[in-house]
Specification:
Elements (H helix, E strand, L loop, with lengths): L1 H14 L5 H6 L5 H7 L23 H4 L12 H4 L28 E5 L2 E5 L28 H10 L5 E5 L8 H12 L6 E6 L1 H4 L6 H13 L5 E7 L8 H12 L3 E7 L8 H13 L3 E6 L14 H14 L7 E4 L8 E2 L9
Parallel strand pairs: 2-3, 3-4, 4-5, 5-6, 6-7, 7-8
Antiparallel strand pairs: 1-2, 8-9
Bound molecules: pyridoxal-5'-phosphate (PLP) and iron/sulfur cluster.
Pyridoxal-5'-phosphate binds next to β1 and β2.
């Protein structure tokens, strides 16, 4: 079935001016000079602020660059991905594994911190490198399960009857081929105890063509053909309204039409979305694209990201202001992840009351 579909698509792709998502992924920009040239920023920039990291290097797909403002060094999308020399600062409290995830692996690729759901990391690859990413120092290479490990994972799940949801997270699961994804989905959604398969992914935002016909068809069919009811949930990661242009919104609409539940998580980031206008615009833009705001995370204190951090009071003040402007169904939950807690911890907004 799957092979037939991709063969049918080939002639269409050859006539089309848009490269396949795989080609777009492979052609992601990794040269800072090239990025600055595209954005017409080669000259005006204070280059002392930029540096060439020797790990977790620049990586950004052209489709995401296309949403940035030409000539604006403070563009909120650019700031999320341009390596900044401030990353080299070692700031106390900002560590290499802020969530102690390295200690919580029962088996290769499995994170089981929350009772009813396990998180699987089946790839370390992302289409984009977000400079604030809490997994940027994570040792994926020694921790990725292969398809041969699936039996072990299934055995693990069967030991925990409370687990009813499998979450594929990052790296970015949608950077894998459909063939590999469907292999994991098919096996896991067959388990009687599993009623939800969730993906945490930034690809629909940074490379919307990843939501290709084959993937959309899979979700549609999963909805109608599934003997056992199993819901698919996709949690996108979008931090700013500008990340959703019309093409992205159209793709998300198509995805929504397949019956997938669409949610978004964002990170509160200094200089990127730390004001009322940006937060309200983000939530409203998500709504227009059929995505509901789910979480607004306080920054995880990962080494190299201290310059994105905000005082807790700033976050709470902003949240009270958002409550005044947005309907309840567009309010994300303000949360932070604490290493020893079996849930995302709600931020105590009553610590600072609105003025
Ligand atoms: C964030 C996370 C989840 C999902 O949490 P929800 O509150 O269900 O969105 C599950 N497991 C781990 C380890 C997580 O970090
Ligand atoms: S897409 Fe997610 S996992 Fe990948 S670098 Fe960005 S924040 Fe990290």
């Amino acid at each position: 079935m799957i092979n037939d579909l991709s063969q049918q698509k080939k002639p269409i792709l050859q006539n089309s001016p848009t490269p396949s998502w795989q080609t777009q992924l492979a052609n992601a920009i990794s040269s800072i000079d090239e990025l600055l040239e595209i954005l017409n920023l080669s000259d005006i920039l204070d280059k002392r602020l930029i540096y060439q990291p020797n790990r977790f290097k620049l990586r950004v797909p052209r489709a995401f660059i296309a949403k940035m403002q030409i000539g604006d060094i403070n563009d909120p999308l650019l700031r999320q991905i341009l390596p900044n020399s401030l990353e080299q600062a070692r700031v106390s409290g900002f560590t290499y594994d802020p969530l102690s995830e390295n200690l919580q692996n029962p088996d290769k690729g499995i994170l089981h911190k929350y009772r009813s759901r396990i998180l699987l990391t089946i790839t370390g690859a992302c289409a984009i490198h977000c400079r604030y990413c809490f997994r940027q120092h994570f040792d994926y290479a020694s921790n990725l399960p292969t398809q041969a490990d699936l039996d072990k994972i299934i055995k693990y799940v069967l030991q925990y009857p409370d687990v009813n949801e499998v979450i594929f997270s990052g790296g970015d699961p949608l950077s894998l081929s459909n063939r590999r994804l469907f292999f994991w989905f098919d096996k896991l959604r067959e388990l009687p105890q599993i009623d939800t398969i969730r993906l945490h992914t930034r690809l629909p935002i940074v490379l919307p063509d990843r939501l290709d016909d084959e993937l959309l068809a899979y979700f549609s069919q999963a909805k109608t053909q599934n003997k056992k009811k199993c819901q698919f949930v996709m949690v996108t990661h979008c931090n700013h309204a500008n990340e959703i242009d019309d093409i992205t919104a159209q793709k998300l609409q198509q995805l929504k039409n397949t019956g997938v539940t669409l949610l978004n998580q964002a990170v509160l980031l200094a200089g990127i979305n730390d004001n009322l206008t940006d937060q309200v615009n983000l939530c409203r833009r998500l709504w227009q694209a059929n995505v509901l705001p789910y979480y607004l995370h306080l920054l995880d204190k990962v080494a190299g990201a201290a310059h994105f951090d905000l005082p807790e009071k700033t976050a709470i003040d902003l949240y009270w202001q958002m409550l005044e402007c947005l309907p309840g169904y567009l309010m994300p939950k303000l949360v932070q992840e604490l290493p020893d807690k079996p849930f995302k911890t709600p931020v105590n907004i009553y610590k600072y009351l609105p003025t």
